[in-house]
UniProtKB/TrEMBL annotation:
Protein's UniProt name: AAA+ ATPase domain-containing protein
Record-linked Gene3D superfamilies: P-loop containing nucleotide triphosphate hydrolases
Annotated DNA2/NAM7 helicase-like C-terminal domain residues: 839-1068
Organism of origin: Glycomyces paridis
Single GO molecular function: helicase activity
SUPFAM superfamilies, per database record: P-loop containing nucleoside triphosphate hydrolases
Length: 1108
């Protein structure tokens, strides 16, 4: 604080005549001066010193000011003076005269806590201040520098701590230009307890204090740092630290990845070229280095191998360097042969990806894991050192004694919260647990764990919470944004699709532009839908939309001419959009230009008709290498055969060869594959294309171009003569919405109070750009599917949470994924005392930890489900959640019935596929082809019965290999079809969507991991495992016989996706309580209790029994 900023005490004005020209240090009104008696005789004389007493100038006052001068000089250190104006040798000096405050000789420390630092952040409009920055602000706001080299700073206060050092200590207020700081005696020292505007202390009698005052850190971080450090050190020495356990896991994970990269090595390439399918083909420099690389690559068993290309190798590998810019891709099947490696770039719209360097090196992808682990390390270090936004977060994670906390008060917001909660639930009433969960989340001083069993409305809770946070003003400032995050993209996308705050979806933050634009598209579609509803009675709007589409079509032809075949389609489309605007002359010209294009199209050998293109895709899809044919060669041949026959591309011998390939069971011999490869080449040449063919170059047709512009002009004239008023405005608005997605995206990111990202992207470059800070800070962090997040990754957003953390999930469902070989290695090396902690998610750790009194503030379970028929809901509750909690069913679930004849009036069924020795192990997975065919048979019967297409179907298996078998059976039953010539299959049109006002996906097939968070009317569960107990095998826990079926968490997900009907298909004997292994921890429960209990449900009054 400067002397001229003082607003207290009596202010006097002295007019001085300087005895010499004013020095530079005297000429500014911010410079403080010290007035002292002059050594020269006379009452009117004085000496004016600089603040540090190193410079001085003699002066005198008028006779009328002698008495005032005496008062100023007698005040000594309790007078504060500064030059207000200087004109030649005449100077006007303002002087504040204070009463002195009695201050102690010893230092006066004043503590500054979290509340005060937060208040300073509010005053300055910044998201975060360190204690040092807060201390500097307080010093600048409330103190004057010491004078003349003294170690006692000066400050204005409202009263004196005159009894300092005794048993009674009075509080006081420090007074600044705008702010006042109330200081009270607490915990055996003075502490700043509040900051308020100085106007509230104007009536105070100011005094000037001189003391060795200093502001000290009394924040939670400082208060707990010593004990926290000691406690963490003890945990570390005992090997019981949860944070350091995961640190050891992280280090080992990195070491294993680098070891895999070292085993593969580096391979130099001298050139690369793009392939027709979008992949990259790299030509390796021949030599021992590349030979070793290719040999190691073929040995790798991983289904998907990511390789990076760069000018130099990565720093982790011997012979590597800085790597620089890298691009990555997945090794394409068939596996590399010779000296060529093909990589498929990521299927994402990453505009920064670019092309590979012209020449460089290939190596196992390391950049992604390096960045990921750097983010983990930063978050872990901030938490461990107590410098995270919640300084005591490490205490919470480690389960140490918690500091005293006070829940936030909601009393001022009671009325508005009641309204917002009601609106968030569509005007209805939330369940008691939903409403209580919202209140706990808003009141919490730090962390809340919300367990959401299946169908209890976790996403609805999150949406309501976002609206409530906004209602209480906690998302009003940009730096107090809320982050909604989850461990994987699907979960984040689900929240973005469903959550709304003030009508806005959360702004998606990611390095992938496609995902970033998702929330912008959602907002655009929401607005467009509402506008469309308002304009249903305005038919001219549709004409304006057609005009806009026609204008875009003409502009696209001007910028990018097409081939004759495409020109035909373009002209047809232009005629449809023009409607009745074309006169006879234009129609005649249109017919002539279209006919000319058709003639050119028929003579263009490189332009393929629809059937021709299908034949080319079929021929290219044939597998002609040993490894590729072993994977799916017969299936490819089977699908190619009808396409090539229909195109007339096969003679009798070729048909026989392809038919043999489709039926082949034994491994193909090299000669057979050579014949198949020759057939593939002959067909491609006959079709007028091969892998090196170049399509014809599109050309612009001047007649067509002129015609299109004339059609556009005629349509504009017709529309303008009929369109008017609000219709045109709305049409233009909708057109702008559609064409300027980037503007919507930028607006969402800049003004939306809610951001959404994966846990890894919470501290990414993309996030830094949006929040405009090197370290993101969020008022609240909401984590969905928190029980599935790896704690290492979960710590990233948690370290950025300033006010509250809300974890939403369910530890009774799918857990986070662990690398078992890493877990075994940690046990072998003894780096940690108890690796069982690795299997406990941070969500479950806190859920178990926050019991008793803490549970009232930090955990709650949503206990009413809306997804399943009450009988199925009670089954899930009894088997997977009781006795810890009971899952009740909402009254609305009684309507979740069905009309399938075979299951009429029932909600559960079991179709027995007895053991026949067909269970097959494939690598680390299992499959039963016979069971897969029975699953598809049942699905087909149900789908045919659902003639109105109102029911959705989910097919779930515990094993990837069984999913593949089911997909093959679905292809054979023509319920799935291949998509183009890629390794992708889709449901046939009749199985893609339900026929409803809001269509839902009608069929999904996958493993359990792909189904969490989803629901279907009917679920068919493929049991897959089928084995006879063998006493000769030591398998007390049933792992060999049952595998994944022993996981309660996986079984809970599998048996809680259905709404109306659950059907298990598999060996019913596996679910017999008599033969299933008993849980050693609970003798009344089976190790596969979910499976056993479901069979018993099927055999009861609510099931169909065991069918075949």
């Amino acid at each position: 604080m400067h002397a001229n900023e003082l607003g207290f005490a009596s202010l006097e004005l002295l007019q001085l005549r300087l005895r010499q020209p004013p020095p530079t240090w005297f000429s500014t009104n911010t410079a403080e001066v010290v007035l002292r008696h002059s050594p020269l005789p006379g009452d009117r004389r004085l000496r004016v010193h600089s603040q540090d007493l190193t410079h001085s100038v003699d002066a005198e006052v008028d006779a009328a000011d002698v008495r005032l001068l005496r008062r100023v000089l007698d005040a000594k250190e309790n007078a504060v003076s500064w030059p207000a104006e200087v004109e030649g040798t005449t100077a006007f000096v303002h002087t504040h005269l204070f009463e002195g405050a009695a201050m102690p000789d010893e230092p006066v420390p004043i503590g500054v806590g979290d509340t005060v630092i937060d208040r300073i952040c509010d005053i300055e409009g910044v998201p975060k201040l360190s204690f040092r920055e807060a201390r500097d602000w307080l010093t600048k706001t409330f103190t004057l520098p010491a004078t003349g080299g003294s170690d006692r700073i000066r400050f204005v206060l409202s009263s004196s701590p005159s009894e300092y050092g005794t048993t009674v200590h009075r509080g006081f207020s420090l007074l600044g230009q705008r702010w006042a700081a109330d200081v009270a005696w607490r915990d055996d020292r003075y502490q700043v307890v509040r900051l308020l505007e100085v106007s509230h202390r104007r009536n105070a009698k100011p005094k000037l204090g001189h003391a060795r005052l200093r502001f000290v850190d009394a924040s939670t971080q400082a208060e707990s740092s010593e004990s926290l450090r000691a406690a963490l050190t003890g945990l570390l020495e005992d090997g019981r630290s949860y944070i350091q356990l995961w640190h050891a896991y992280d280090q080992l994970e990195r070491e294993v990845r680098i070891a895999e990269a070292e085993e593969l090595g580096l391979a130099r390439y001298d050139t690369w070229k793009p392939n027709a399918d979008g992949s990259w083909s790299f030509s390796l420099v021949r030599g021992s280095e590349s030979e070793r690389f290719m040999r190691s690559l073929r040995r790798m068993e991983t289904e998907s191998i990511e390789i990076e290309a760069a000018e130099d190798g990565p720093p982790e590998l011997a012979g590597g360097g800085s790597a620089g810019r890298t691009v990555r891709g997945t090794v394409c099947r068939p596996w590399p042969s010779g000296w060529t490696v093909n990589l498929a770039p990521p299927k994402r719209s990453d505009h920064r990806r670019g092309d590979p360097p012209l020449s460089g090196v290939l190596f196992l992808a390391l950049t992604g894991s390096r960045i990921s682990q750097e983010r983990r390390a930063t978050a872990r270090e901030r938490i461990w050192s107590g410098t995270a936004e919640m300084p005591y977060l490490a205490r919470l994670i480690e389960g140490l004694d918690l500091p005293p906390t006070t829940p936030r008060s909601l009393s001022p917001y009671a009325r508005v919260l009641k309204r917002v909660i009601r609106e968030s639930f569509g005007g209805g009433t939330p369940t008691e647990s939903q409403e209580e969960a919202l209140k706990i989340a808003l009141r919490t001083p730090d962390i809340v764990v919300v367990q959401g069993p299946p169908g209890t409305g976790k996403t609805q809770f999150i949406t309501a919470l976002l609206r409530c946070l906004d209602a209480v003003g906690e998302s009003a400032r940009g730096f107090n944004r809320t982050l909604v995050t989850s461990f994987q993209h699907d979960a984040v996308d689900n929240v973005v699709r469903k959550a709304r705050n003030k009508g806005l979806p959360p702004a998606r933050i990611d390095s992938d532009e496609k995902k970033v634009r998702q929330s912008a598209r959602l907002l655009r579609d929401d607005i467009a839908g509402r506008v469309a509803q308002q304009t249903e009675m305005l038919p001219e709007v549709e004409r304006l939309r057609q005009l806009s589409e026609l204008q875009s079509l003409v502009e696209s032809y001007d910028q990018a001419p097409t081939t004759p075949g495409d020109l035909e389609e373009l002209l047809d489309r232009a005629q449809r959009l023009a409607g009745g605007a074309l006169d006879a002359q234009l129609k005649q010209r249109l017919t002539k230009v279209r006919t000319q294009a058709a003639v050119r199209n028929k003579s263009a050998a490189t332009l393929l008709a629809a059937r021709h293109r299908a034949a080319v895709r079929a021929a290219r899809s044939l597998r002609t290498s040993l490894g590729a044919f072993a994977d799916d060669g017969p299936d490819r041949a089977l699908h190619a055969l009808p396409e090539l026959e229909e195109a007339g591309q096969l003679d009798e011998d070729e048909h026989t060869l392809l038919l043999t390939a489709s039926e082949r069971i034994a491994p193909a011999d090299p000669r057979f594959l050579e014949a198949l490869a020759a057939l593939q080449l002959r067909i491609l040449r006959r079709l007028g294309t091969d892998d090196t063919s170049v399509p014809a170059v599109p050309a612009r047709d001047p007649d067509a171009q002129a015609l299109l512009h004339d059609i556009l002009e005629a349509t504009q004239n017709a529309v303008q003569s009929g369109a008017e008023g609000i219709s045109g405005v709305l049409a233009t608005y909708l057109d702008d919405l559609s064409s300027d997605l980037a503007l919507i995206q930028g607006t969402l990111q800049s003004y939306n109070s809610v951001l959404a990202s994966t846990v890894q992207q919470a501290d990414s470059r993309a996030m830094h750009l949006v929040v405009e800070a090197p370290v993101p800070v969020f008022g609240s962090v909401v984590v969905d599917e928190a029980a599935r997040a790896n704690p290492l990754d979960l710590m990233i957003p948690l370290s950025c949470a300033k006010d509250r953390i809300i974890l939403v999930g369910d530890h009774k469902q799918l857990p986070h994924v662990l690398e078992q070989k890493l877990e075994r290695e940690l046990e072998r090396t003894g780096k940690v005392a108890d690796t069982a902690l690795l299997r406990t998610s941070l969500f479950q750790r806190w859920f178990d930890m926050f019991q008793g009194k803490a549970a009232q503030e930090r955990r709650i379970t949503l206990d009413e489900q809306f997804r399943m028929h009450p009988t199925l809901g009670a089954f899930v509750s009894r088997v997977f959640y009781e006795p810890e909690s009971t899952l009740r069913s909402h009254d609305s679930t009684r309507a979740l019935t069905h009309g399938f004849d075979a299951y009429r009036g029932k909600v559960a069924g079991w179709i027995d596929v007895p053991n026949d020795g067909s269970e097959t192990k494939h690598k680390h997975s299992f499959m039963r082809p016979r069971e897969a065919r029975r699953v598809v048979q049942e699905l087909k019967a149900l789908a045919e019965e659902d003639v109105e297409r109102k029911m959705s179907f989910g097919i779930i298996s515990f094993y990837k290999s069984q999913v593949a078998e089911i997909q093959k059976a679905l292809l054979a039953a023509q319920l799935l079809v291949p998509h183009d010539d890629e390794d992708e299959i889709r449901p046939v049109p009749s199985m893609q969507w339900t026929d409803e006002k809001r269509p839902r996906p009608r069929l999904k097939v996958g493993t359990i991991d792909a189904f969490q968070g989803m629901e279907f009317d009917v679920v068919l569960l493929s049991v897959t495992r089928s084995g006879i107990p063998d006493d000769a095998i030591d398998d007390p826990l049933g792992k060999r016989r049952y595998g994944h079926l022993t996981s309660d968490q996986r079984m809970c997900v599998a048996m809680s996706r259905q709404r109306r009907l659950l059907i298990a298909i598999g060996d019913a004997e596996m679910a017999s309580r008599a033969s299933a292994p008993v849980d050693p921890a609970d003798r009344g429960r089976s190790l596969v209790e979910g499976l056993v209990a479901f069979r018993e449900l099927c055999e009861g009054p609510d099931g169909t029994g065991i069918r075949h």
